[in-house]
Amino acid sequence: VLTAMPASARSTVVPGSEAAGLGACVEPTELMRRQHMEFIKHQRDRTVHGGIRTSKHSLAGCVECHIGHDAQGQAVPIDRADQFCGACHAYVAVDLNCFDCHAAVPRGPMAGSLAEAARRAVDEAQHGQGAVQP
Amino acid sequence: MKRIVYREWRLAPARYWGILGVLAVMVGAGLLAFAYMEHEGHWVTGMNNSVVWGTPHVFAVFLIIASSGALNIASIGSVFRKPIYKPLGRLSGLLALALLAGGLMVLVLDLGRPERLVVALTNYNFKSIFAWNIFLYTGFMAIVITYLWSMADRKGDPFIRPVGVFALLWRLALTTGTGSIFGFLVARQAYDAAILGPMFVAMSFAYGLAVFVLVLMFGFAEDRRPIGARMLRRLKNLLAVFVLAVLYFTLVYHLTSAYGAKDQGLEGWLLFDGGVYTTLFWVGWILLGSLVPLGILYHPVRGAEAPWVAAACVLVILGGLAALAVVIIASQAYPLQLFPGKTILESGFLDGVGGQPAPYHPTLPELLLGFGGVGLALLITAVGVRVLQFLPESLADEVLPIDEETIEQPVAKAA
Amino acid sequence: MALLTYSYAALFYVAALVLVSGLVVKIVRYARTPAPLKIPTTPAPTSRSGVALRMTREVVLFESLFRGNKWTWIFGWIFHFGLFLVTLRHLRYFIEPVWAPIALVQPFGIYGGIAMVIGLLGLWARRFLVDRVRYISSTSDHLMLALLVLIGTSGLLMKFVFHTDVVAIKRFFLGLYALDPQPLPADPLLLLHLLLVALLMIVFPYSKLLHAPGLFFSPTRNQVDDPRERRHLAPWARALEQQAPAASSDPRG
Amino acid sequence: MSERGTEIDRERRRLLGAAAGAGVALVAPAVVVRALETTPRDAPVDGRVRWGLAIDTAKCAAGCTACVDACARENGLDLQHPPEGAEPADWATQRAVWVRKVRLRDDQTGRETNLPLMCQHCEHPPCVDVCPTGASFKRADGIVMVDRHTCIGCRYCMMACPYKARSFIHEALSDQLSHVPRGKGCVESCNLCVHRRDFGLPSTACAEACAETGHGAILFGDLADPDSAISRFLASEPTRQIREDLALNTGVRYAGV
Amino acid sequence: MAKATFDVPELTPYTEVPAVTPGAMAHSAPFVSKAEFQGPLGFPGELVEDWQTRAIDKMGELLGKYRSLRVYLDSCVKCGACTDKCHYFLGTQDPKNMPVGRQDLMRKVYRRYFTLGGRLFPKLVGAEDFTKEVLDDWYSYFHQCSQCRRCSVFCPYGIDTAEISMAAREIMDSIGVGQKYCNEIIGKVYKIGNNLGLPGPALVDTLEGLEEDVFDETGVKVRYPIDEEGAEILLVTPSADFFAEPHVDGLIGYGKVFHAAGVSWTLSSHASEAANFGMFIGSYDNMRRVAQRIREAAIALKVKRIVFGECGHAWRVAYSFLNTLAGPWDFLDPRYPVPQHICEFTHDLIEQGRLTFDKSENDDKVITFHDSCNVARASRMGEVPGGQFEIPRAIIRATCNHFYDMDEDTIRDRTFCCGGGGGLLTDDLIELRVKGAKPRLDALNNVMQEKGVTHMAAICAICKSQFTKVLPYYGMEMDQIVSLHQLVSNAIVLEGGEDDDEEDAPAAA
Ligand code: HEM
Ligand code: HEM
Ligand code: SF4
Ligand code: SF4
Ligand code: SF4
Ligand code: SF4
Ligand code: SF4
Ligand code: SF4
């Protein structure tokens, strides 16, 4: 077993985000920590060129699931240095420019649909292929 | 044959660092302009959605074609076996590299997403002339470096000619390719012309040589090395012939345009009521850039005097920038003809309502970026001649190889 | 897991100790050894600032090597500059918060890594292809190159193919500062990378890698050319003067 | 296991509600309802369809800009604001426009024509041919668009497009919509509302808006399907391509010009 | 004239880098010094019993005394930049004559006894015990280094093989393995005052002869004084200048320049030698002892300035070390640097317009200039770095109409050694000297072919002697080598004054 440490001590998942209440990411956490950039990059090409919107690695999906909220319940941009993507990348000094273009909070009429696709895919992974996480 | 002796450019350190300082400031200002444009976005430039390429592109294209032209001297020396040009081969190669680097710097720093340069270097669309140009440019660098090596290293001797021939062909492809960036744009009337290719070749010869002669004269004057009358005569005659060639292609280009019915609107506009573009064309390109230099170069007395030849070179360069401004900017400012036989009364997107040209006002950052490229080219040259043996010790008449001076047809031979 | 973490933690404590103490000993010894005579390779600068400039050119541009051998210079410079960029990029594993300039240049470390390996391969090829260099190369020269190539390629593989958990690595090293080792991800490539790095740190003070500090102490490069203006006397040479005074060192006496 | 699955389900439903709520605050309710009925595409697009527009200029009304506004709203163009310090006149030349309204007068007859002009989704798109990185590309279903992950912002495609259909983003953006990422330094243009395509919505924002105004000048549909409304319209009405001389076989056709 | 017992290399248009031929020069070694020559220098007369430990101890001592040695033995990365820079390697093809190859002879011993790696894994790092074979290699190859420092110019760390070979020679001396040529000569300096062993009266004779010759030739009474107390300038010049060709023509030139300048000057019989072979054997003590003579002479003769004649390594010792070894010089005229080179002196006068030349006197020659290595790479002339290149050339240009430099890669600080420096100017090393001269002569031959050069000027006694000897091996004439001040001497126009006939020309003070 790789994760001997309690998740809380190591995880950067923001409290109050949807993810905080869930047990697993779209892939096993150990894998996400290492490979998430590859996942979303592949997803990116498949979406832009192939029009595929059902995969679980959608960036908009990440944002929706991992978005944190302020005291007023407003979504906080996910790339802010104290938020999910931002915190980690500030820690390792990686400059993420995805959110130059991508909405850093779920916004717009289709927001729900985009996340929905990802969730559906996770469901499939969890029900279809059995559990990935203990 | 006597060996040509090359020496590093040996200026007094204060003078040398002074020159480098000035050039570094130029480059620095260009970089600052880039940082500003990159940080703010391109709205701080005069470029817009109608005139998408502006002043930086004028400089970039100038430098790139001048780069190809600068190598011409080396080609004439080794490919066309004109021994008199041989001593200039190394400088010619260095200048070609430097100008190309300067031009590419401007081009890259003007990109909307310069940080994705790697993307441009790893993703190619082989249908795109532009992508081919990326190969042409990087290939050119590699070839010129090989060429320089073959000229500088004793082991390289047998390769000089083959590499030189290859470089020549590559160079013609490169200029044609650069010209074709425009020539293949069927959308724009001004560009949809095959003659742009050869015209760019002629331009590259003229501008490249003008830059070359200026740099040579400056470098020699600073280090108190002699340039003999014979060499000066050859160079200025060559320049005159190239300027004439540009003039000739300009004439043919505008005649064919004016003849083709669909382009008459454009011709009339450009030649008569294009405002600043008309001035750029007549005063910049034709008068100052071609006729006056020709007058100087063919003047029996002035044409033999170094300062006048230098002045002619400066004019040719300025005229070249004007010419490229006309070719690049005016052609975009003139509205696209989407609805022949109809007048646009209203449009949400500057479609040339009532035939109005699109606006374009260059801003300071664009100019600085352009000059930054020039600065980089000169900086590389200045460092190059200092650390390596690029400049011949002397071009005085007595050290130059004998040349069959009577039969002078450089164009026929060079083109 | 814990075993792994603790053994690597121990390894790095030892390696750091060897590196730092070894280098300090060496450098102090260089600094303490006098240079009794003025032996700058001339033409040499006649002022301290001139010497500083000369040293800078040597360190940054490898000026002498440039004059000496262009091929070696190109590969050597590519390697060292790449190594420099890689080092800058690696700083992000060791400082928190990461300084802004480091964050800015860190992406270039990736190209630095590629350049570094290319440079090393060029240098290595030379050791086989040029008979003179083949003659002077000893096993340790090859091993040193092999070591660096391996470090570089394992790093690049981590960057491009088998990603590792960078956050955990940083936590591990920050933990080492606080004597509180955090778990180290058990990725084989990472373990190899780190093992070799530790090895490099250990051999550094005992190998030709001493050229890095050595350059700064090289009298032919760091001396000012002013022997006529300033009398230069090493302590042991002064002692010599006192024990056996020259026939008449004072002209008036 | 299954217990956990249901837990996620419940959780999700709660959050979906919240997301929908947020949506309501931002846009008209009708849109939100529709958004929830989407069927995202799960197979790559293929060449069996070719999306296109048919524009009946006779129906396009003077003074109307509903389609232009709808496009701006759909794609977040209206969230773009002039950067501080920009001259309004300059800004007008630099802001992004995916579709514009053009009013023409025939030089001979004096007849006036109104039409919306957007990317023509050429079958042989010059913008794609010239793009050095291949960022400008044509999807299998005929949509010409820019992959903004590989666009370097060279603007060569803008030089090449005969219709001036493209815009360069001259300034940093914020407040983008989740489904239309866009930002500084890249080139963009009408993509036939590609997200709507992929989520299975029937029409484009402009066509829908035009229909809502009652003009119905824009018809969206599959050009490859002979039974589609658009194909039937093209079969029945004389239509043409703008700049037919270039033989680009555009996906946007105009009747009555 | 020269009948060689070895193959004289053929000159090539450019010096090609040869393929390495291990052992090609292993047979070359100078005569070993006898006890009688060792003693006066304070060295054991023959190889001592426990030579190995004593050598290692000595090495340890030197490591503590010379930062150069310590840093250089650690720093080499075997980059190879120096491998094709040594004229002896280029001429002999022996890889142990590659500077790094030469250093490695010592480095392998250093590694074995002084580094952790060498103690633990000698094979891995190329460490070796100090055996008799190694010692023989040392003797052979550390006497194939002319300490010209060309290698140090190109080494990224400035590693100076000359420093290593000096240290090696000192270690060998300390265990009783000295080189006859150097040690004998140093002994002569101690005993008689100069390398050639010319006693004082002989010098006086020679100088009187010179005065007569010059008067005969020019009609002007130029003086060549020795041991004149109260003269302004003490001239220290290599003893070869007193009689050998072409050296003596240089000395004649110095006298004419002093005459034209109107300053009083003198030679000294106590310090009648500029050369300081103490440097060659790396012995600080001996170098210091030799240098002290100059101080003694200056004090005794109450001079105000010291000027050195044309000699390369002598100028290095004078310029770089004299202040250290025999300073401080606070009793001399502070307006002038101590010491000055004769070229600096002449050049100053030229600058001030105080010398008149008739350049056509040298029209029978087309000149090129050989930068002597110790002048070029270990010293300076004038105020600015590089003056040592410009000043002699300026003098040539002022005195000759036809001057061409040799190939840029072989002059200035990249100059090739004549092949006879560093204490190797002895007949027992003639093969080495001839082969080592090849790169220099390749370049000379080149300008002879292309520019019609006829003569090469030099400012070093060793260079002049070496070229006189080796030029014939390559089919050139021995008199193609000239002194720089010979050219000055030829071209200088001396004021023929009334006082020429008077006995005591009043020296302008
Ligand atoms: C002040 C910093 C340094 C300077 C100025 C410097 C300079 C040089 C130079 C001039 C060379 C010879 C040319 C070549 O072969 O590349 C060299 C070689 C080398 N350097 Fe450095 N270096 C520095 C730091 C380092 C460091 C930190 C390392 C190792 C981690 C290193 C590793 C090497 C190696 C392995 C070689 C030998 C390459 C071969 O075997 O050919 N250097 N260095
Ligand atoms: C304790 C010290 C070191 C640690 C913790 C470390 C860790 C790492 C890690 C985690 C990566 C992968 C980066 C990624 O996936 O983005 C990496 C890459 C790399 N490492 Fe190291 N490394 C260390 C020392 C070194 C040293 C001393 C060298 C060179 C001599 C080196 C050369 C490289 C190279 C060339 C790469 C690939 C390029 C890059 O990502 O920067 N590393 N290293
Ligand atoms: S919405 Fe319809 S009528 Fe209105 S401008 Fe657009 S196309 Fe014309
Ligand atoms: S209209 Fe322009 S942007 Fe659209 S596909 Fe055609 S060429 Fe490309
Ligand atoms: S701007 Fe972007 S899409 Fe257009 S040609 Fe350049 S890279 Fe391609
Ligand atoms: S199809 Fe969509 S993107 Fe294109 S113009 Fe209409 S609304 Fe805008
Ligand atoms: S000092 Fe001169 S002779 Fe000695 S190794 Fe170096 S180059 Fe050769
Ligand atoms: S140049 Fe210097 S570092 Fe390189 S091999 Fe020679 S001595 Fe060693």
TrEMBL record, chain B:
It holds the Pfam family NrfD. The chain crosses the membrane at residues 16-37, 57-79, 91-109, 129-151, 163-187, 193-218, 238-256, 276-296, 308-330, 367-388. Signal peptide: none annotated. It is a multi-pass membrane protein. Belongs to the NrfD family. Its main location: membrane. Gene3D superfamilies: Formate dehydrogenase/DMSO reductase domain. It comes from the Bacteria. The keyword Transmembrane applies. This is Polysulfide reductase NrfD. Keywords: Cell membrane, Membrane, Transmembrane, Transmembrane helix. It is found in: Cell membrane. Coiled coil: none annotated.
UniProtKB/TrEMBL annotation, chain C:
Keywords: Cell membrane, Electron transport, Membrane, Oxidoreductase, Transmembrane, Transmembrane helix, Transport. It is a multi-pass membrane protein. Pfam families: Nitrate_red_gam. It is found in: Cell membrane. Its main location: membrane. Residues 77-212 form the NarG-like domain. Coiled coil: none annotated. The chain crosses the membrane at residues 6-28, 71-88, 108-125, 145-169, 189-207. The keyword 4Fe-4S does not apply. The keyword Hydrolase does not apply. This is Nitrate reductase. It comes from Marichromatium bheemlicum. The lineage of its organism: Bacteria, Pseudomonadati, Pseudomonadota, Gammaproteobacteria, Chromatiales.
Automatic annotation (TrEMBL), chain D:
InterPro entries: 4Fe4S_Fe-S-bd (IPR017896), 4Fe4S_Fe_S_CS (IPR017900), DsrO-like (IPR054822), ET_IronSulfur_Cluster-Binding (IPR050954), TAT_signal (IPR006311). Residues 51-82, 142-171 form the 4Fe-4S ferredoxin-type domain. Keywords: 4Fe-4S, Iron, Iron-sulfur, Metal-binding. NCBIfam families: DsrO. This is 4Fe-4S dicluster domain-containing protein. It comes from Marichromatium bheemlicum. The lineage of its organism: Bacteria, Pseudomonadati, Pseudomonadota, Gammaproteobacteria, Chromatiales.
From TrEMBL, chain E:
SUPFAM superfamilies: alpha-helical ferredoxin. InterPro entries: 4Fe4S_Fe-S-bd (IPR017896), 4Fe4S_Fe_S_CS (IPR017900), Helical_ferredxn (IPR009051). Signal peptide: none annotated. The lineage of its organism: Bacteria, Pseudomonadati, Pseudomonadota, Gammaproteobacteria, Chromatiales. It comes from Marichromatium bheemlicum. This is (Fe-S)-binding protein. The keyword Signal does not apply. Residues 67-96 form the 4Fe-4S ferredoxin-type domain. Keywords: 4Fe-4S, Electron transport, Iron, Iron-sulfur, Metal-binding, Transport. The keyword Metal-binding applies. It holds the Pfam family Fer4_8.
